[in-house]
Amino acid sequence: MKTIFEKSNNADGINFVNETKKIDFLPDELLRNSHLNLPQLSELDVMRHYKELSDMNFCIEKGFYPLGSCTMKYNPKVNEFLSSLDGFDIHPDANDDFAQGSLKLMYNLGNALKEVTGMDALTLQPSAGAHGELTGMMIVKKYFDTIGETRTKVIIPDSAHGTNPASAKMAGFDIIEIKSNDKGQIDIDALKSVLNSDVAAIMMTNPNTLGIFEEKVKEISDVMHANGSLLYYDGANFNAIMGYTNPKLMGFDVVHLNLHKTFSTPHGGGGPGAGVVAVVSKLKDYLPKPVIDFDGKKYFRNYNIKHSIGSVKDYCGNFGVLVRAYAYILMMGKNLKNATENAVLNANYLKEKLKKYYNLPYDEPCMHEFVITGEKQKEENGVSTLHIAKALMDGNTHPPTVYFPLIVHEAMMIEPTESENKQVLDEFVSNMIDIANECKINPQKVLDSPYTTPVKKIDEVSAARHPDLNFKG
After folding, report:
1. Cα torsion for 255, 260, 265, 266, to the nearest 10°?
2. How far apart are CA 70 and CA 42, in angstroms?
3. Is the same domain home to 325 and 272?
4. How far apart are CA 22 and CA 19, in angstroms?
5. Mutual orientation of helices 422-441 and 385-392 as an angle, nearest 10°?
6. Which terminus of the chain faces fewer neighbouring Cβ atoms within 10 Å, N or C?
7. Last residue of a domain, one of 280, 310, 334
8. 39: left (phi over 0), alpha (psi -120 to 50) or beta
9. DSSP state, 356?
C-alpha cells in the first residue's frame, strides 16, 4: 500500500488516500498485499516500552564502567544543556557574518587543543578517532607526494589499536609490524632493523595500549626524523599525559585526539564524535579545508589551504560535539591536569590491589590503564577471562575490555578513568577478589554467570554460527 496526499478543503488541508500501486523495480513476492498489523498505542504506552528496554541496558548512570574511556567516560549533563542553547542551532550553510559566535567557539577550541598538544595547526572536521587516523595518514601521504618522495610503508607496534593498520592501509600504505620488548614497549633494535627510505611514518600510542609509557619515545623520534620519516600520535590515551607533557615535546608531527576520550563528549553506538587532527607547522598546508581562522576582526572559514587533502567531513565537523568539548575545557581550566592525575592514580591503585589475584604480565607503573590476565584461573580451574567478565555483571559492574591487546593472552584491560571515587574502586576490587576466590572454591558458579542480568548465560558459539535473523511483526 502506498500513502499519497491530496488537496482538501477540510480544516486540516490534507486528505490521506490509500492507493494500491504496482512498483516495477521490486519482485512481486516482496510486495505487501495487505495492511500492516500495527497496534494502536498511546504516547504513554510507547514511552513505557522504550523505558523498559532502556532499563535493561547497563549504563554509566547505573554503575562502574571500566571499559576504557573509549565510550563510557562521564559526560557532564551541563554539557548537554550548553550545547542546546539558542544560537548553536544555526544552519551550517549560513554566511560567516551570521555565524561569528559559532566560528569563535571553534577557533577558541582549536587554540585550546593546540596548547595542550603543543601542535601548530589543526582541523576539527574528523568525526571519530579512526576518521582522525585516516585524515592524519592522508596528510602524511600528501606531504611526501608533494615533496617528491615515494614512501610506501608505515611502521606499527604489535600492541597498537586495531584501527591503526586499517587507517594506514586505507591511506595507501603497506604495514610493517614490530614486536614489543619484555617491558611491553617498542623494541628500538627491531625498529631500526626495518627503517629505510620507504618508511613514511610510525604510528604510536603513548602511553601504549598496555597502559605503559614509552620510555624511549624521544630516541624513537630522533631515529625516525633522521630517516626523514614522520611520527603519528594516536591520541586515544592522551588523558594519561595531558598537562604533564605533550606530543610535540615527544617529537610527534601529527596527532589525533578523541574528544570523547579526554574531553567528556559522548560517543558510541554509531553516533557523532570528533577526532580532531593537529599538526606541526610544516604540515599545516595539508590540512582538510576549511580551517577556522581569525583576521583580527572577523572569524571565517578559510578555504585557501595550498596543499589541502580536501574536505573529510561535511561543513566543519560535528559542531554539537565541539561545543561540549569546549564547555568542558572552560569548566576545567588548569584543572585539566587534575583529570590526568586522578586517571593515573586510580589505575595504579587498582593494579596494585589486583595483581595478587590475577596475572600481571608487565609489572611496571602504569598510566591511565593496565592489563591483567585470567591465565591462572583458566589453567587451574577452567575459568576463562570471558567467564570472569560475565561474573562481574552480577556485581553491578560492566566488564572491562577483554582479549585486547592481542599480544596478551586472556587479557583484561582495565581503565577506571578519573571520574570514579575510591568507594567505587574498592567495590570493584572486592568483586574481582570474590570472583578469583570463587574460581577456586566453586568454578561452576562463575562458569554459569551472570545470574542477575535480563539476558542470562548464552551459547556464544551457537549464536555466532546460527544467528536468528527473523523479524516477527
Report:
1. 140
2. 37
3. yes
4. 10
5. 130
6. C
7. 334
8. beta
9. T
Q: Are residues 241 and 109 in the same domain?
A: yes
Q: Is residue 16 predicted with pLDDT exceeding 50?
A: no
Q: How many domains does the chain have?
A: 2
Q: Given its phi and psi angles, is residue 153 left (phi above 0), alpha (psi -120 to 50 degrees) or beta?
A: beta
Q: What is the pLDDT of residue 70?
A: 63
Q: pLDDT tens for residues 399-443?
A: 999 999 989 999 999 999 898 999 999 999 999 999 999 999 999
For residues 384 and 439, give the distance between their C-alpha atoms in angstroms, rounded to a whole number: 10
Amino acid at 112: A
In this structure, are 121 and 140 located in the same domain? yes
Per DSSP (E only), the strands in 188-331 are 199-204, 230-235, 254-258, 275-279, 291-294, 299-302
Same domain, 380 and 247: no
377 phi and psi angles, rounded to 5 deg: -65, -35
Q: What is the mean pLDDT of residues 72-91?
A: 87
CA–CA dist 292, 274 (Å, integer): 16
Same domain, 125 and 150: yes
Mean pLDDT taken over the chain: 91
Residues 375 and 256 in one domain: no
Locate the DSSP E strands across 121-170: 121-123, 153-157
